[in-house]
Amino acid sequence: MSLSAALNIAQSALLNNGRQTSVVSRNVQDAKNPDYTRRVALVSSMAPGSRVVDVQRATNEQLFRQNLAALSAWSGQGTLSAGLEQLEISVNGVDNSSTAATAIGKLQQALQTYSASPSNRSLAENAIDAARQVVRSLNDGTAAIQTFRGDVDGQVATAVGELNQLLAQFKDVNTAVAAGTRAGRDVNDALDQRDALLKKISEYVPLSTLSRGDNDMVLMTKDGATLFEGVPRTVSFQATAAFGAGTSGNAVYVDGVPVRLGSGGNTDASGKLAGLVQLRDGVAAQMQGQLDEIARGLISAFAEKGTAVPDRPGLFTWPGAPAMPAAGTLADGLAGSIRINAAFDSSAGGNPELLRDGGANGAAYVVNTGGNAGFADLIIAYGDRLGQPMAFDTAAGLTTNISLSAYSSASIGWFQAVRKDASEGAETKEALAARTQEALSNATGVNVDAEMALLLELEHSYEASARIIKAVDEMLATLLAAVG
């Protein structure tokens, strides 16, 4: 080997060493950046010596896609779980203190006490007060549900705005990646930015990606709606001004395709938007339906029944009186409009002892026809009706032929089961997201120990190249001295 060839090889090694050291130093510098992907300097043998021909990112497409799916599932599940926790406190109160079931239980106790001493007007007043608390729990529950649905609707609008902003940012970065790839520039930093945006976007909607020439990328949802293809597609949503019990929230559209709401506590939907829509139009709406059925059951249980006359609302009434509410009134918000019949309310000039005697709807409905102060049959009958099976609408999602007391308790049990499933699902999906992120980090992230070991090897390589240059220098000096 000639001295000039040896010198060229040593110089090439120093140049390679400098670039490799720069890559390793960058890796160490960004080791704690979760959006940074490890860089690798590729060295190719060339005569004479070798050179760094490219700097590539360490990638694992399969793990990255699994991580996107896990992030999306966790986001949707976490959104549902957090919303259910809020809904429970707003509607049911701490330890279910505000539920209709609790209030109905107290009403039953008041009726039992009153039936033991039906001549005691104070006990009649107490029973009416207990009934008033039942009404208040249903009215307040309905108001809390609709307020909650309105709040969630606002969160949907905010999330849609944030998603559109992320898609606009994605367009800029994707354009930079494609243009840089065509021009042969280093686009690794832009690719890191694009992957970071994909993670953020997947928190809102489940993603499917397609890579084309020049590193250009197309984004779609799991349902097949196009999110991005050259330009962002429109994600649209029209917020609802106010929610009533029968109000249906507007859908979120991705390129004209509605976002599907999930079902179940451990929801089958992914992404924050699907979780929010499920809260608004799934769980909260079904909870409202159950309250409406409880209200209808109360009106039916305390209806006044007469001979050869139709049943009429008694202690509990509604705006449609004197008719009885028909089955299937889930969308009517009956729980929000149920009231105590003024005929029983002493503060409104009524007589609470009608609960003992009957007759709020006229003489044909009087049961205590003898005016006996010790008459307790009707009071006992009302208490018995609360424990007798009745038909409920299947749309509310609960057992259809049980007592009103059992139904109101089953409503609490249903919600607690959904909340528990949602909480456990959130823990499971969070763990899955963490595991896929860890696996991705192990495959593409920076191991500082490994990088420092590589840096030590590069230092040794530098020392070897320096010794070669020194040896060549000494040989050339000896040769020149001999020639001189």
Strand-helix topology:
Elements: H1 3-29, E1 39-45, E2 50-57, H2 61-92, H3 100-116, H4 121-183, H5 188-202, E3 207-211, E4 217-221, E5 226-229, E6 231-232, E7 235-236, E8 253-254, E9 257-258, H6 272-301, E10 304-306, E11 309-312, E12 316-317, H7 334-337, E13 339-340, H8 354-357, H9 377-386, E14 389-391, E15 401-403, H10 404-444, H11 448-483
Antiparallel strand pairs: 1-2, 3-4, 4-5, 5-6, 7-8, 8-9, 10-11, 12-13, 14-15
Please characterize this protein's 3D structure:
The protein is an alpha+beta fold. The protein folds into 2 domains: 3-58 and 448-483, no CATH class; 65-205 and 238-432, no CATH class. It is 58% helix and 11% strand. The chain is built from 11 helices and 15 strands. It has helices at residues 3-29, 61-92, 100-116, 121-183, 188-202, 272-301, 334-337, 354-357, 377-386, 404-444, 448-483; strands spanning 39-45, 50-57, 207-211, 217-221, 226-229, 231-232, 235-236, 253-254, 257-258, 304-306, 309-312, 316-317, 339-340, 389-391, 401-403. It has a 4-stranded antiparallel β-sheet. Strands 7-8-9 form a 3-stranded antiparallel β-sheet. A two-stranded antiparallel sheet has the order 1-2. Strand 4 (217-221) and strand 5 form a beta hairpin. Helix 2 runs antiparallel to helix 4 (121-183), helix 2 (61-92) runs parallel beside helix 6 and helix 3 (100-116) runs antiparallel to helix 9. The chain is rod-shaped and about 145 Å long. The mean pLDDT is 89.
